[in-house]
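Issue: ligand-bound run for NAP - logging full I/O for the record.

Environment: standard queue, default settings, no custom constraints.

Inputs:
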Amino acid sequence: MTGPNTGPITGPITGPNRPPGARRASLPCVKIGVLGATGPAGQAVAVQFAGVGHEVLVGSRAIERAEETVNALRERWPNRDLRLVPADNATAAIADLVVVATPWDGIISTVAALQEQLAGKVVVTMANALTRWGKEMVPLLPPTGSVTVAVARALPGARVVGAFHHLPAGPWSDLDHALDADVMVCSDDRQAAAEVIALIDALPGLRGVDSGGLSSALAIEALTAALLEVNRHYKVHAAIRVTGLPDREQVPGPGG
Ligand SMILES: NC(=O)c1ccc[n+]([C@@H]2O[C@H](COP(=O)([O-])OP(=O)(O)OC[C@H]3O[C@@H](n4cnc5c(N)ncnc54)[C@H](OP(=O)(O)O)[C@@H]3O)[C@@H](O)[C@H]2O)c1
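Outputs:
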């Protein structure tokens, strides 16, 4: 693996069972902000991006919690040079690309307060609107059809992308054992979707799959509930793979 802090990621970065359609892009390191990065999902996003050399602003509503999280992640990975910087959410939103990792019922108030910082940026939402019904996790239907569309409505000036909804945070946060999974990516901004897919393709074990526009978010988010039922039934941390995709080289670009 290319060492962190050394400028461009030159790849290849190997992951387990890399599917033939996937390739490792040569990407510049970018500054990534994660809002709500003190939770398991945000921590996984933060360490994975930091693990391939990006600088990550670890955001929280309280800087003390962000500091505790960064300290804990550094203690967990003492031999990795992870560029993790504690920040409040407003500071994390200043990054080049921002991932929102708060619960669905706090996401709109979180991003709406940061409209100015997020204008013009790629903003990735991974939130799933779910609730417990007896023993089951079931999907809720937001009035907009999905959380991703609600975020896009709340941020008309941003380039909103849905991604990472299906990745189980626990195993995904383990830098020593890459998760073997596809990441369904949706956005009405085709260029933004392509940029996020390129970032995902550079993460160990993952492949970004263009899943269309924001109207796909409803199905993507709801599928998470079914995956959680798979987990409950088989006592695993399931993730998904999409089969039958062409090689990346044969896939038309965002304009094609
Ligand atoms: N956990 C998973 O395996 C997983 C996988 C894929 C997607 N997701 C999605 O990722 C998101 C985060 O999941 P999680 O399990 O990490 O959630 P979480 O632990 O419940 O929350 C993450 C962080 O969000 C902040 N937060 C909590 N309530 C908030 C509110 N009302 N407004 C603003 N910020 C709030 C908290 O950080 P501070 O108190 O430090 O601000 C908290 O540590 C969810 O939307 C979930 O659906 C989760």
